[in-house]
Amino acid sequence: MARLMKLVVVLLLCGIFFGAPAFAQDKVNINTASVEQLTTLPGIGPAIAAKIVEHREGHAFANVEQVLDVKGIGQAKYNAIKDLITVGEPAAKKQ
Predict the structure, then answer these.
(1) For residues 60 and 31, what is the distance between their CA atoms, to the nearest angstrom?
(2) Which pTM was predicted?
(3) Sequential pLDDT tens for the chain (95 residues)
(4) CATH number of the domain encompassing residue 38
(5) Count of structural domains within the chain
(6) Is 93 inside any structural domain?
(7) Which domain holds residue 66?
(8) Domain membership flag for residue 22
(9) What is d(CA 43, CA 90) in angstroms, rounded to the nearest whole number?
(10) Quick check: 84 and 44 in contact, CB under 8 A?
(11) Cβ neighbours of residue 77 under 8 Å, at least 6 residues apart?
(12) Secondary structure of the chain as H, E, C letters
């Protein structure tokens, strides 16, 4: 019985460590995401997602920290989403 439990624990740990990257989601681009895509972020409902879209229509986000300028997103909510969002690739420099 103890041997079976060890096997179960090992299999579970393998699943966690090797299976997690398969479930990792791509970052959500706050400059291009739809309201529906933004609501996949923790703590972001349709109302705040709409505010993000409205905010970026006036001026695109240059960095993820600027999402703090959106009414309804405070430091705690930002901390929950900061690793899940992006503003996209920086523009290439002209030569």
Answers:
(1) 6
(2) 0.68
(3) 888 677 666 666 655 555 544 445 689 999 999 999 999 999 999 999 999 999 999 889 999 999 999 999 999 999 999 999 999 875 544 44
(4) 1.10.150.320
(5) 1
(6) no
(7) 28-86
(8) no
(9) 27
(10) no
(11) 43, 44
(12) CHHHHHHHHHHHHHHHHHHHHHHCCCCEECCCCCHHHHCCCCCCCHHHHHHHHHHHHHCCCCCHHHHHHCCCCCHHHHHHHCCCEECCCCCCCCC
| 3-state class (DSSP) for residue 49 | helix
Does 18 fall in a domain? no
E strand or H helix that includes residue 86: strand 85-86
Query: Which amino acid is present at 72?
Result: G
Residue located via tokens 């060890």:
6
Q: Is 76 inside any structural domain?
A: yes
Only one residue has tokens 């240059």, namely: 62
